[in-house]
Amino acid sequence: MNDILYKQQLSQDVFLMRLHAPLIAEERQAGQFIILQTDEDLGERIPLTIADADTVEGTITIIFQVVGKTTRHLATFEPGDELPALVGPLGKPTHIENFGRVICVGGGIGVAPLHPIAQALKKAGNHVTIITGARTRELIILEKEMKAIADELIICTDDGSYGRKGLVTAPLKELCERGSKPSMVIAIGPPVMMKFCSEATRPYNVFTQVSLNTIMVDGTGMCGGCRVNVGKEVKFVCVDGPEFDGHLVDFDNMISRLNAYKEIERRHYKCFVEKAFSDKEQEVRI
Q1: What is the mean pLDDT of residues 116-121?
Q2: How far does CA 182 lie from the centroid of its chain?
Q3: In angstroms, what is the C-alpha Rg of the chain?
Q4: Is it the case that residue 284 has pLDDT exceeding 80?
């Protein structure tokens, strides 16, 4: 069992939790993730990136957005509660070295897994420009933490309520067009955002690395649920990734596979919310 030591709501439906997991905290490297389960018997297993770790405290930090039944259930957990299952660290860590000028692009909740990578790149001596984006100001997360890392921080919102109005691809293109183009770009966020970041850098021949968050069950490459097409090869995100060359990823196929279970996910989410509401009403009556 892994105790929840701390919980904070960062924005609408986005939560931060600090979990007691000393062995994972000791082994974890930037770019790796865990798989957790909220119900010991019937729970779905979901992957979440390790946003931070403290080896002295023996904790890891996860940041997640409520999008379905399992994340809704996870959001009901409080400090003192225990998670029945937690495994990690999983996946290949990010390759970190002094590349020179690096641009880190995070969209929405993708800013959370981007944080430890940007932190490690800065520590390795890189000049780090960070671009973060969200639909509105209320959905911007980790601004203070990213500002502490970045040599330059650019914030975008779709509605213009904070920072620049528009998508993250606009400043990304501008930076690629400068006299000294970046050595590499790392983009993490919704699949469509990573797809268009990769397309934005393609004309400039800037290596673009993306971190994929696909459907996973076991996290060991056995189930095949996380398979993606990268170039002419089939890769498994849980063991071959989660990071790949964005110019080679077949995003259209990946998005299609992610949408395959949408209707089932909606039904389970609806049932979970209705049951929770019914249970609450019953408590009030008692």
Answers
A1: 96
A2: 23
A3: 19
A4: no
Element (H, E) at 34: strand 33-37
Residue 234 in any domain: the answer is no
Does 201 lie in the same domain as 156?
Answer: yes
Q: How many residues does the chain have?
A: 286
**How many C-beta atoms lie closer than 10 Å to residue 284's C-beta?**
6
Q: Are residues 66 and 106 in the same domain?
A: no
Q: Which domain holds residue 27?
A: 2-90
3-state secondary structure of 69: helix
The token pair that represents 78 in the structure block: 């409080």
Tell me the C-alpha distance between 39 and 136, whole Å: 33
Q: Residue 111: name the closest of 77, 142, 76 by CA.
A: 142
Q: Which two tokens stand for residue 273?
A: 């919310």
CA pair distance 283, 94, nearest whole angstrom? 48
Residue with tokens 């089932």: 264
Measured in whole angstroms, how far is the alpha carbon of residue 220 from the centre of its chain?
19
281 CB burial (10 A radius; 0-12, 13-18, 19+) = exposed
Proportion of the chain in helix, strand, coil states, percent, rounded to 5: 35, 30, 35
Number of domains in the chain: 2
Q: Do residues 19 and 74 both lie within one domain? A: yes
Q: What is the DSSP letter of 95?
A: P
Name the token pair of 14: 């986005």
Say yes or no to pLDDT of 281 above 50. Answer: no
Paired tokens of 136: 């509105």
Q: Map residue 111 onto helix, strand or coil.
A: helix
Once rounded to an integer, what is the mean pLDDT over residues 70-79? 92
- For residue 198, which of 237, 226, 166, 230 has the smallest C-alpha distance? 230
Residue 268 pLDDT level (bands cut at 50, 70, 90): confident
Half-sphere exposure of 98 (CA within 13 A, CB side): 4
Cα dihedral sign for 161, 165, 167, 168? negative
